[in-house]
Amino acid sequence: MKSCKNSVLKEIFLVCKFTVKQSCKTKSFQISFAILACLAFFGPIIMGIIQAKPEDNMPNNTEISTLYIGMDLGEVKVDFEKLLEDDFYSKMKIEYIEMKDVEEGKKDLEKEGKNQLLVEVNHMESNFQIKAWEPVKNSFWERDVETLLERMSAILTESIQLQCALTDSQKLALNTQVNTEVHKVQENGEIKNLSKKTGIAESDSMFIYGFIMVILMIGAFAGSSIASSVVSEKNGKILEYLLTSISPIGILAGKIIGCILLTVGEILCIGAIAVVADGIAKNISNQEGSMIGSMLPDTIISNLSLGTVVLVLFFIVLNLTLYGFLAAYAGSLASKVEELKDTVGIFSIAELVGGYLALFSAMYMTEGTTSLFLKFVYLFPLSSVFMIPGALLVGKVNFFMVFLAIVFVMISIIVLVIVTIKTYKTHLFSSSVKKKRLIKFSRQ
């Protein structure tokens, strides 16, 4: 018994090794891997170039030589000479002009051709407005004008508060956010907070949605490859040669495990390339944090740990295993490649049902994360392998639910393996394979 078991494992290993080698030699795999590797490498680098901080090239002094200011603030008095107290603006000259001369001043900016700036400060009905005009042909630093207007806005706000004789506590009160809550008292005297929600942020929901879509596409490509590979071998000489030394169980299991290892290996390689590119992008942009991390919601970053990453990868493997054997079952039902389009619907419908249940749940999680529907999606094997990885990353699924999901998926995989192998043996024969040569192997 032990010798038979070791023999089957050896057969699975041989077929798995052969599957990986042959798949790596195909043009489709090489091209797809090259495209994904380029995206993973150049994507973060391009973003790092785009998001490079312009402050890194900030000059020691403003390049604005003269600042013309026209003001119409009514009773409000503002002294923008405070700008000159900053070393950055110490060499800049400030001149106040009448509002009637503002239009004429706009025309003179381009004529004089110097690094001059005209600013108009107005008191509107409900707010204050600061407008700036600069010459078309200027040599200002990229954020020179923007930085100046931010500083002038701060001076204006400070002057208004001083003239209103506001104390520090009053200023703080004006800037304090007011929060409201609605409570309902139940019959037992318990107070329920009606404004409290258990849902996740929209950014977290979109991350889970995108993560599910990626897993869905990976599973679809891997599944279609397994199904077409299983049925195509029935129509050639390869199966005859394989069955002379390897059992049907070894062929089927080795092929699926090989595809799973190849897919997971590709994911890890792409991830490693992305990490290297992220380090390069970080140096280019001169940002403190990770470039990839800046694109992820804060919730994801806070929940990242070695245990979480391992569990996510484990569920991806479970996903590929479950739908891999389901694809193999669909391929086993077909005797010819032409028949595959009729049998592969089993795999396609199952994956769509599981994937779309998970996608709908990702959107629903913005409203709540404790409903019975979500618990069903977590535990239903077809959808749990899509939903659990994203829920783990946002920290909205407990480990007891994860454990139950693993148990249900493992039971489903075992049942599916038994059914698939039995079906594979039954439908092993095709027009190009001699039944009399294979019958003894199909009974193994």
Strand order of the largest sheet: 2-1-3-4
What's the end-to-end separation, in Å? 14 Å
Number of domains: 2
Would you tell me the structural class of the helices and strands? alpha/beta
- Mean pLDDT, nearest integer? 77
Description:
The protein has 2 domains: 8-50 and 200-442, no CATH class; 63-140. 64% of the residues lie in helices and 7% in strands. The protein is built from 17 helices and 6 strands. It has a 4-stranded mixed beta sheet with strand order 2-1-3-4, with helices on both faces. It has a two-stranded antiparallel ribbon with strand order 5-6. Strand 3 (116-123) and strand 4 form a beta hairpin. Helix 2 runs parallel beside helix 8 (248-285) and helix 15 packs antiparallel against helix 16 (399-426). The longest helix is centred in the middle third of the chain and has 38 residues, at 248-285. Mean pLDDT is 77; it is low at 178-183 and 430-444.
